[in-house]
RNA sequence: GCCGAAGUGGUGGAAUUGGCAGACGCGCCGGACUCAAAAUCCGGUGAUGGCGACAUCGUGCGGGUUCAAGUCCCGCCUUCGGCACCA
């Protein structure tokens, strides 16, 4: 069989007969199978794309053959920084390079033979898509979930431009090497923190990898504790957040973040110079650097003092860069006796250390002692346990207005504005008279202008396009300016799964009634690197749109699978700079996409991935040819009328156990073992053929072979379609049903089990299926090898595990 | 630094969750077919010792629990991911 030719033949037929076109009338039996869409970065598909799309397409085909109406769309996440960088370097407009890349990738995806329904294709950079991205932004804006505030960005002092984290290398600009500082800009945010608790709770009921759920939980980072208010001597006050209110009597200083608004007003004249120098230094330090554990904790004294509300003690106010303005209240209380960081800080700056907790059981409680225990040196709270004191102290403070019990989340609001060109424009107009005015929905989309100078020079590229910027205020009609920023591309990818089923709707982002029937996604497949960002943002969008009345479900992706990563042959991530990138093209043009896909499924554990190894590809080609030979032979000998019941029964057993195990394995995305089972089945067919040359039952073998074709179809779609034709079946194999296991064929009247003596393997016995434990033991004891192994010793204990083994403990 | 995952023959990887370690492949060795080679088909293949039946060892290292440990517990080592002092 010419695999290449066969591919061409069936791809044409599939396309001509619209085989994979989704039938909307069967929505009640739908399965929405979604692979994370691609970023059109390079011109060609790499091994990773194949690894994502090939096996998951096999999964979709499997569901299709089980009778589900499968919805499997494809599209492109087309806005983003790489295209813009490429443009800056080469002068090719991002739109041109992106559309060209999409074109190539689309062709390749079609050539893969995946059963995507291209009628629902999405490109996020096209106005018919981003119009609705803007619409969603406006819905969130109306609900108060989009707002502006000052936030720091990475700023290159030489290029005068904002840098993404990935463009900052060792605190310097990757382009010019100049120092990067943090600078405040007014930025748009989505208030994802409003949903922190629900995002956390919702994880419990999702069929997602535990690892991913754990990562999201950690990212959301809920901690319960209290806020304690410290009054300053200048009359102002600030609060700290703590999970250890029980240690409040041990406070010997407080530390504010260097950016804390109070610092300027608190600092005394003699400390001002040192504080300002420290603040300047901090602005140069990236957040990642600041948070490095290997750095020594530093700080400076502000000269000011405040009062610890629990005991009235006067404590010094410091600033330190290990305190982050963005977490909690931007201020912490320093309890060196019971916190390691505080302990280090106190030692370094010679601050007092007061113990207020002892181990309850008198065990070693050397300082810093960070466990819970029993309070000492804590006034009225002495003798309480940490747990009791936490509540008691917060409560007492709350009654006096000096504190409250609170829950704090690590999760921060989502910064969505980018000072970039290649993104979705923000549909807001800034009017001198009316302020922020949303663009009316009937004026969407706000088109991204093509002709824009996007060389980085300190301004948002759109700011330089007067044609874009100049507009009139939708409210008062006076001249006004558009928002010059674009949206983070994660915004575009946070709702694409909602657009797919209604991809060509030009009246709405989606028809809610229809979407509520199509969603949630039944199986979502993509890389683990999106565990926290994309997957959390998409969940947030779903919940927000639900609260806006558009959706009637809470979670977008019921079940999630992460595929592993295919590494280079050297075991490292494939990268151009390392020169270990494997291009699938050569393999595919030689052996075809089916063999390549099956190799990817067989040679790796799908969820693990691993380094590329070529050898196994040839073995898959050999296997497929072996299958073909058998099918041709079985068709030819269809009418041979021999019969040998025992051999047929045995083959039937293998046949049905294969059906059962392949089905289970595919459902678990364990493709490598599924294919191993198929190989075993083929081996069994050959063995039958060999042993039964004299009594060959042509009809029976033909039926077994037909099942083989069906079983193989999801893995090698083109070849199976051809074999289906060779076997004389009507088109298409994908309109036939996947075989189901007949459990009665799996009933055996006897089975083999292992016999151990003192846990060492000594013999194998065959026992009747209905034998009880005593009978099994009896058969085991009668076996000559067992008799010999036991010898004169006494059997002290007999362990019988039906279907597994017998262990005789002797001595 | 913390969290998570992993570590199994020459090699990719299996192992129903505590029950015959190495399924299925690759590679290698041998046989059949062939004038020959390729292809194909068949058989063998963890290590050590032994002519042999067999014995001993063996899932990163060291301990432990158990009739039984790749799997569970304790302590390490290495690799890969993720997170960044979270008050």
Describe what this molecule looks like in 3D.
- By secondary structure, this protein is of the alpha+beta class.
- Helices cover 37% and strands 19% of the residues.
- The chain has 26 helices and 34 strands.
- Strands 10, 11, 12, 13, 14, 15 and 18 form a seven-stranded mixed β-sheet that branches. A four-stranded parallel β-sheet has the order 2-1-27-28, covered by helices on one side.
- α3 (81-90) crosses α4 (94-112), α21 packs antiparallel against α22 and α23 runs antiparallel to α24 (717-726).
- The chain is globular and about 105 Å long.
- The model has no long low-confidence stretch (mean pLDDT 88).
- It binds one RNA strand of 87 nucleotides through α7, β11, α10, β15 and α11.
Structural class category: alpha+beta
**What's the rounded overall pLDDT mean?**
88
Question: What is the subunit organization of this protein?
Answer: single chain
Radius of gyration equals 34 Å
**Alpha carbon gap, first and last residue:** 63 Å
Strand content: 15-25%
Return residue spans where pLDDT drops below 50 for at least 5 consecutive residues.
none
Residue share in helix = 25-40%
H/I helix tally: 26
